[in-house]
């Protein structure tokens, strides 16, 4: 797994109300002093808007399709790449803000009670068995309340230490470390990393291998992954000159869980759609919504009485040359002063077991909660 670069580690210190951060393993972007925020359509040409700053904007897709995409344009964007001397760039910002005192007390409260949520899992699994859809993703929330303002740089620093290969972000009120790449684009080449199918980590290498073997052989998890992989391939294929994709998924090991992952690389046709339009055609993927998409939305609306907002959407950057990178907004929290809401979801198919799905959400919540409440 890639290690966190010194540039990314340094940039994290400057995140806050005035600065936006998006960091991938090979590039960290720090947006300084936002010029404006726009609501845009995925197919809209945003190059003129980006020139109000210095050619780069930070983008957020809500979970719900059809809602406007948020575009924040900074006055200046620092590009911090591994191996480059970033000190002069960061020195131009002055010293990073001094952290407020750490929280001394905190409380956790599940918004969806486990028993009720498990009942919803059973209902959705029944709908899948009846043929109403192939998969739906149900989400849970945990509220965190502390006696001090939660500081994004501190949270990001802890997440970066635990998940150095993740896509780190602090933007639009969300802070997180996502393992999942929705889409990146450089010229006519795009990449995507499909993640679906999850199991916890073991206590040692032997236990890890045994759990990974179970994941690979699990019909339920293979079905989840196949739905996502096929959807990404079918969506990008009409725009592709060539596609590189492994026949079988890999195991992606994170600090708390293991995932089935398929990495896709596509060379686009010369007349390909813009980056944001391509991303919109993928979003939200079956990994965070379900499939078919409209049927999954109907089921989610029936069992969830809240708006997911940016959770389960996509977040990243786009530039005036139509390059960009968007991760899926999972493993994240909404932070508002001394209050935070942490999200986790689980994919429900025909043979989903409510207790196992609940355990999966708890394992995913374990990725964020320590970063929010650590002393």
Task: Provide an overview of this structure.
This protein has helices at 6-12, 47-50, 87-91, 114-129, 152-162, 205-217, 219-236, 275-282, 293-303, 354-365, 369-373; strands at 19-24, 27-40, 56-61, 69-80, 106-110, 135-146, 167-171, 174-178, 181-186, 189-200, 240-245, 250-253, 257-268, 290-291, 314-319, 324-328, 332-336, 339-348. The chain is built from eleven helices and 18 strands. It is globular, with a radius of gyration of 20 Å. The chain has a single domain (6-96, 105-373), classed as Anthranilate synthase (4-Layer Sandwich). The chain has an 18-stranded antiparallel β-sheet that branches. The protein is an alpha+beta fold. The two termini are 27 Å apart.
Please give the share of residues in helix. 25-40%
- Helix and strand run: HEEHEEHEHEHEEEEHHEEEHEHEEEEHH
**Low-confidence blocks of residues:** none
Radius of gyration over all CA atoms, rounded: 20 Å
Spatial shape:
globular
The CATH C-level class name: Alpha Beta
The CATH architecture term is 4-Layer Sandwich
Strand content: 35-45%
Mean pLDDT: 90
Secondary structure: number of strands: 18
Instruction: Give the CATH H-level superfamily.
Output: Anthranilate synthase
